Amino acid sequence: MTAASVEKKVNGLAVASPEPRFDPVALAEAEAIRTRAAAEAEARRIKAAGEAEAARTLAAEQAEKERLANERARLALEKKQADHDAYVARKAAETAKAAAEREKAEKAEADHAQREAQLLADQERTEKIWKWGARGIYVVGLALAGPVQFMHFWDPERPFLIAAPALLEGFALAFAFGAAWAVAHRRDVAPYRVGIMLGAVIAAAVNLYGGMSDKEIGFNAGLIGAIASIGGPIVLMSYERGVAQKADGEPSRRDRRTAAKEAAAKAAAEIKARSEREAAAAKAASEKKIAEERAEAEQRRRDNDRQSHHPEVWAIAEAMRSARGSQYVTEQIWAEAWYRKTGSKLVGVTAEIEAESRAAQARMQNAASTPIIGEFSLIESQKAPRTKRDPNAPDGRRNNGGTPPVRRAGDTAPYSAPAKKQASLEQPASSAKNARPNAN
């Protein structure tokens, strides 16, 4: 507002209007309105900036969450893939192992079958050799013994005796066939074997007698004929006996020896195991007895010690032991008796000991909380010694005429960024709140 006059025209005439009046209320209201508008604008700006910052922060947090989620998903996928690869590798290893074991088992079975087949082939081959060898020996024996007997029984006056050699040699041969029949039909073979040997002995005796009595035959021919008469049936009987043993499942002498050795080894192992068990049991019983004796000695020592040093508690413990039917004063009974007598749950602690302990703890706490002053002070040892001020020196705080000291830039440490931001958020709101009453 200016102090100059304002002219107005009224009915064509210039009339000087009076100077406008100064209104402080209106000015204050206008200033309040401007301040409020500025505060509101600043508040909206700060709010918008805060919302934008919050949006950016939220977006950054959301992006970080998504990144972490993606990272976790990637790690989980990698873990699943690694687990799957390990599972596949493990299954492949198990499959390869099973295939190797199956191949090994098949190879072992094939080798066993091959060995069994080879053994069976060898048995059949040797059986054929033994069979035809025994029969061949029997035939050779007949060829040797027959002529000797023919020469011995030949008599022109008695031509029918020519059948005697066939009777003597056929006697053993018939019993040999009977023995083979008995083996095939699972019958008793012993009578046929007796018949074979009886016929062989008779034929051998005739041959030997003929060789000794008839010079045309000679002793050598009679002896070889006797051997042939006995040898052939013996060989054939041995073959038939082997066949009978095989058919009956009778073990051979070698099998019996092997079985006897295995039985003896098993019996020896059982005896050894039994002796070891008995020794272990005796050792355990001895150790148990020693442990019981030590426990009883320790229990006696403990009882005597407690009875001599704590007779009152011992009387209560002994009464509780007797009432409960216990053999000894156990640790539980002793702890309960101690509690009943002293009121302390800690065995060995009495009221006097507890009081002294608490007093010592209180003294230690006071000593620990009292500051150390003097040459043993840790604070003084960490600080440099201060220079003593002259007592006659003027005190600038009280002798400067009441004028405060001059403040210069840098005297106060700068505020932190969060403090500045919080102050900027609170200051416009408080200014607007203080401006509203003036506006009304």
Could you write a compact summary of the structure shown?
The protein has about 450 residues and is an all-alpha fold. It has helices at about 25-155, 165-185, 190-215, 220-250, 255-310, 310-325, 330-340, 350-370, 380, 415-440; strands at about 5-10, 15.
General description of the model:
With 440 residues, the protein is mainly α. It has 10 helices and 2 strands, in the order E-E-H-H-H-H-H-H-H-H-H-H. The protein has a two-stranded antiparallel sheet. The two termini are 24 Å apart. The relative contact order is 0.05. The N terminus and C terminus are likely disordered.
Which terms would index this structure?
440 residues, disordered C terminus, mainly alpha
Topology, element by element:
Layout: E1 6-10, E2 13-17, H1 24-153, H2 164-184, H3 190-213, H4 219-248, H5 253-309, H6 311-324, H7 331-342, H8 351-369, H9 378-382, H10 417-439
Antiparallel strand pairs: 1-2
Helix pairs in contact: 1-2, 1-3, 1-4, 1-10, 2-3, 2-4, 3-4, 5-6, 6-7
